[in-house]
Design a protein that fits this description.
Blueprint lengths: L20 E10 L12 H16 L5 E5 L5 H9 L5 H6 L2 E5 L5 E4 L5 E8 L3 H16 L6 E2 L3 E2 L11 E8 L1 H5 L3 H10 L2 E5 L9 E6 L7 H27 L2 H12 L9 H14 L4 E2 L3 H10 L2 H6 L8 H13 L3 E2 L5
């Protein structure tokens, strides 16, 4: 079964925000000129659009794989869904998925919009990711016309995506803000400036990991969106690092946190929500109080430690998943170097 692990690892020059951002997701939505949005289309109309667009995508000067949901193994679909590539709406309404076999982008046809192209990478690489996927749309636009209005920009099924159709999203660890009880204040402030902050879990005990993305894409250019988003994330990084310094400067809090990590050795299983907590704790302590040489492998367990990934990619038995999950975490933290005193 051919599949791609997301977030994608790219060999590139490091960005200072790589130390803060777990992963970045960039998505652009487009619709065909004079064609109803997918929600209003009949199945025959959807199939006609799928066929037309699939042929155009297959002609792109890259190695492209085009698949239908009907032909996709269930396990592959669930892995992509857990990694935020395939959405619930796409499973309900879409049929065709296309991707560059190197994992540089994925296109969903007839989800909420006729075309949604997505890239997901480790760390922070938002401008290069945008340039990569927008270049694909430019090539498609040589063959077809996209719905565009002089006043509103590119037209999309949701008014929130009018304008550029661009959605920028990062997954970040806000352990310090959470520990210092400042999360609610931050979320309120972010909402006022046009950004949404959503916890990665849906449980009652929320984790310190949050997705942050832009609300609107109208009335602003793509370049300005990219620049403003980066400035926002840089300021958040500074705020979070200051919160971590404040929290872990209290010796009792630091010692409790260290003990929590060490006590992992006594456990024999762990659920996904607890895995998220330990990943966020290790990440928050990294470089100042501990050293984790393979921090990206630890971070990627957020995605590769899900039930779906372990069952269908690692082929773990259902009852063994909590044990396999903990085994992977222990493997990646086995070489942690500890610094016990606050600095």
């Amino acid at each position: 079964m051919r599949s791609i692990d997301f977030p994608k690892h790219q060999e590139r020059k490091r960005n200072t925000l790589d130390n803060f951002v777990f992963s970045t997701r960039v998505r652009i939505a487009r619709n065909l000129e004079s064609i109803k949005f997918p929600l209003m289309l009949s199945e025959k109309e959807k199939n006609d659009i799928n066929e037309q667009l699939s042929k155009l995508i297959a002609k792109l000067p890259v190695d492209v794989q085009v698949e239908t949901l009907d032909d996709m193994p269930r396990e592959k679909l669930l892995i992509y869904q857990s990694n935020h590539i395939i959405t619930n709406e796409f499973i309900r309404s879409g049929r065709v998925l296309a991707y560059d076999i190197n994992g540089n982008w994925v296109i969903l046809l007839n989800e909420d919009d006729h075309i949604r192209i997505i890239a997901v990478e480790e760390g922070y690489n938002v401008k290069n990711m945008y340039n990569r996927i927008s270049s694909i749309l430019v090539q498609l636009e040589d063959e077809i016309d996209f719905a565009f209005d002089e006043k509103y920009g590119y037209l999309t099924a949701s008014a929130m995506n009018f304008g550029t159709g661009l959605r920028l999203s990062v997954l970040v660890n806000l352990y310090g803000l959470a520990a210092e009880k400042n999360i609610e204040n931050f979320i309120e402030s972010a909402n006022k400036t046009g950004y949404s902050v959503t916890n990665i879990t849906s449980s009652a005990s929320d984790s310190p990991l949050f997705y942050i993305y832009n609300f609107f894409s109208i009335g602003i250019s793509e370049e300005d969106m990219l620049n403003e988003f980066e400035i926002f994330i840089q300021k958040l990084n500074e705020l979070e690092m200051e919160s971590r310094r404040s929290y872990f400067s209290r010796q009792d809090e630091l010692e409790i946190s260290m003990e929590e990590i060490m006590e992992l050795g006594k456990k024999d299983r762990i659920d996904w929500n607890n895995l998220i907590y330990y990943i966020s704790l290790i990440d928050a302590l990294n470089k100042r109080h501990i050293t984790a040489d393979n921090i990206n492998r630890i971070r990627n367990l957020v995605f590769q430690g899900t039930d779906e990934y372990l069952q269908y990619k690692i082929m773990a038995e259902t009852n063994d998943i909590p044990k396999v999950r903990l085994k992977l975490l222990k493997k990646y933290i086995s070489n942690l170097k500890y610094k016990y005193r606050s600095t």
